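Re: beginner question about structure tokens

> Can someone show what the tokenized structure looks like for a real chain? I only ever see the sequence side.

Sure, here's an example I had lying around. Input first:
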Amino acid sequence: MCGLAGFWQLRGGSRDVLLRQVQAMSDRLIHRGPDDQGEWCDEAAGIALAQRRLAILDLSAAGHQPMLSACRRHVLVFNGEIYNHLDLRRQLQAQGAAPAWRGHSDTETLLACFVAWGMERTLRACTGMFALALWDRQQRTLTLARDRMGEKPLYYAWQGDTLLFGSELKALKAHASFGAEVDRGALALLLRHDCVPAPYSIYRGVSKLRPGHLLHVDALSPQSAEPEAYWRYNDVVSAGLADPFHGSDAEAADALEQRLGASIAAQMLADVPLGAFLSGGIDSSTVVALMQARSSRPVKTFTMGFGEAGYDEAAHARAVAAHLGTEHTDLRVSPDDALAVIPNLPSIFCEPFGDSSQIPTFLVSELTRREVTVALSGDGGDELFGGYNRYLGARRTWERMRRLPALARRAGTGFLRTMPPDAWNRWFERIRPLLPRRWHLATPGDKAQKLAEVLSLSSGDAFFLHLASQWQHPESVVMGAHEPATLLTDPGAWPDTGHLAQWMMAMDAQSYLPDDILVKVDRAAMANSLETRVPMLDHRVVELAWRLPPQQKIRDGEGKWLLRQVLYRHVPRALVERPKMGFAIPLDSWLRGPLRDWAEALLDERRLRHEGYFHPAPIRQKWQEHLGGRHNWQYPLWTVLMFQAWLQETRRTSL
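And the corresponding structure tokens:
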């Protein structure tokens, strides 16, 4: 795992200036690669490349980057891991196309494949996570590429006649030519989604390369280059639905265990200590169980908890770890520990990011890095196997709700809003013993509030967009904003699944997963110089998941049904069966307590008017309702607060 940066200055430049400038960009990424650094430039072309290395495979100097191909035509900077690189070497060897290997790094393998097969064939042959920049010295072409599922980030921007690119925005901002203003349309997207989805960034004219895409820039018409897809998620959806798995439940569980187990085995390859996050939930427990089954020694596992009711999974994780025999470490975090992270969030994420689980993700990454350099994660299970409550709601709630008369919907909305969320929570707690297990919901008051909001919607896609939005009408909050189109609002880009829950899963896998979940994990882990790997996002696991019929994902009101069957082969059902919690913090009470003064300062009406990004009235209304306990507006308020904190930090560091 590493960080890369570079620029192409079309007018050329002196060697000293090029190297000094690219090193300044690289210096902003030292957290992504504290073990080594390198720079390379071509004065005549004006190209400069830099890389910060977190050494994982081949710790010797043979893994140093930027790396030149054996023929010295290509120069590569690369962030990520190619898990099948040894198999690729064998293929090259069999074809007589292998160079005289200098080491055993996957970077060297990639370069040899690019020389022998070209860019697109190589990318399709790779199993892994990556962002890369490849310079062809002969053709004077630059190619940027990003992995299929979007595990590794890559930003790029034209600033005059200079193309900047790098793993994080902070690298681009270190270049002397960088100058961009806040994109108000992207700010509206932030308020809706908690994040700025690709291809947008918080700055106008600065883009994120989308997952499964490459950008090929040549010297003849460089600024006309447009990203191209070398792999499409929707193609996988269509292929899987056209060729469904026809075996029994047991055969499907066998196939999933074999495929996921092979992915995990490949991702356990490392020349440094390796472990795994373990929350005690379905996804992480499955990954750890399959890791331990393939390890001759106890796997190192890590979790953390807050010690507050409804937010502490540490005891569940300890029980799973004890059953599997892992070497387990957990950390009990106090509110003060978590609150201490908040001032650093703007620099960690380098553009405003509103998913509050960023805090526990950072803390568990910090804990994990004390023992290991690589950690496997269970992310992706919800999107592939139907784990989120909204997929269950697509059938239980939406399908029933849409058949109700409009008058009945309005009456239902009024009833659900008769009590604030805290009152609903207390009422549900009293009647919990009388309810079936599937109704043992975490935060039922918030869910009642959300249900009230969706009762008046008219279509399944509107239902999904509503659930995916923190602010329902962000253009009315952001001054001068025009919200741009995204996957969620462009029907031409939607997959054809014929099943609302399946459609929602495919949409989440292309939006919420890469733009929120994977961004959160990457930035929080890399801030601690920790590499994370996500075995469920191996594209072959994804392909198998889309061959599985819906009833093997969601059955009897339970999501991730087939994944659970695999887990039950290794862990007793009683240890992992409980309501889904997510990776949350008690943000609602913190905003009324220890964070109140900090939030009040950032949401001050005069400040909001002076800065000129937000209309104060809707924000102040939510803030007052939250403080008074009438509504729990923790998430929409947190997104605004994260922008305000980012804006404050950006102005401070630019002085």
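Each token stands for a local structural state, so reading them left to right follows the chain. The CA atoms of residues 56 and 629 lie 49 Å apart.
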